[in-house]
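Table 4 source record.
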Amino acid sequence: METNSSKMKLKLDVNITEAGYEANNATIKNIQIQIRPGELVGLIGPNGAGKSTTIKTIMSITPYRVGHVDIGGQSGTYAYVPEQPIYYDYFTLWEHLWFVASVNGINVEQFEQRAEKLLIKFKLVDQKHHYPSSFSKGMKQKLMLIIAFMLEPDLFIVDEPFVGLDPQATLDFLELLDDARAEGAGVLMSTHMLDTAERICNSFVLIHQGKVMASGTLAEIIHVSKLSEGATLFDCFQSLTVDVMSC
């Protein structure tokens, strides 16, 4: 049985009975996700499975929700990295960073220290005074990642972060994520890259048709999938989703 003290350590505690974009018209049902300090949970599922709706519900964007979401207690903070980068045409890269820092109460000294370090890490120093509208998809994605890491949140909610990133940027991102996790941050990551997810995630939540098909460690997912030891996450994904679709 989980004690009150162990629940206090959760970076994310989600228990969604049902949620969607219209009242009494649920898109997802019975979604449970728990993330502890330093834990990386992969949110896995095919297109249209309900991953984005789950993320939007966690962020209180969906208009209809029955259930509760608790991010790190009452004072918990999170940073969201969307699949499609969001930016202002009239802000330079640096102005984006300063705007987010000022809104979140980061003082000038902290801002400059964090921002410069991250710009160096992602090799965007020469573009700091350029407008993101001229950036490649990968550079825009780096901007989103820099903003997230600059905030030093309790929880990262990351939607398809690898899209557009080159191999070096991917390695840089994962290194920074490891550092944040070592400091106690939790991570919820939605991704289609099952081989990468299998390598970096502590556990998984597999969603299909708006419901959780399986959750837990890879070993637990393999057991639910009724596959042999040594099966991959892709094998489990295929087994569970094909079985449902054939019913």
